[in-house]
Amino acid sequence: MSEVPPTRMNQQIFKVKKKAAEGGYKLLKKKADALKVKFRDYAKAIAETKGNMSQDAAAAFFSMTQAEYAAGNFKQKVAEGPMTARIRVGAGIDNVAGVKLPVFRLYETGAVAENQSLGLVGGGKKIVAVREKFTSLLDALIKLASLQTSFVTLDEALKVTNRRVNALENVTIPKIQNVLDYISRELDELEREDFTRLKLVQGKKEQELEEDRKRKEAESRKGVTVKANEKDLTAGFDAAEDEDVVF
N or C: which end of the chain has fewer CB within 10 A? Predict the structure, then answer.
């Protein structure tokens, strides 16, 4: 603090800094609260999605077993097909309190499903059920991947925001306040010194005025006394009583 000159200008500058720091602290605190709420929502959604995925996966693979039992081993025929993707994953961005979170979405390409002849001999309905259940499982898997990625990104953003909030609350604002207290103490000390100096100067002037007044009064009394003595000396003199001097 010694490197900060204790002046009125610096006091105003640090007051503005403190106000800006307090405003930033309030905004970051609100952002941290919003991120915490979203963080809890993502954690809850991930837990629910994982719980549902276990059931979907069990149902999908059980349906696969039923289809293989009804239609035989059709995996080889599917692998020998053209393998044109009917479903793709698209990426988007979700903005939460200024934090950009990646979002994955499933969309259909519009391609015609291949291997339509599978199951003609038997087990056609089971194969269709397998396709539907694995599509549902894939949708849940993409949703889980989106939630997990957003969760990790949100966790990092929340840590950074909390560090900034703690830095403003425990370091920046107290440091600025200490500088303001130092400047206030120094300015108060300067004001007391100026007041003492003014009192001394005023006392000196009053003393000089008092001495000048006493001197003038003394001179005035002395002048009156001299005039009175001169008046007494001439008052007893009568020119008629003096005898003529003959030379």
Answer: C
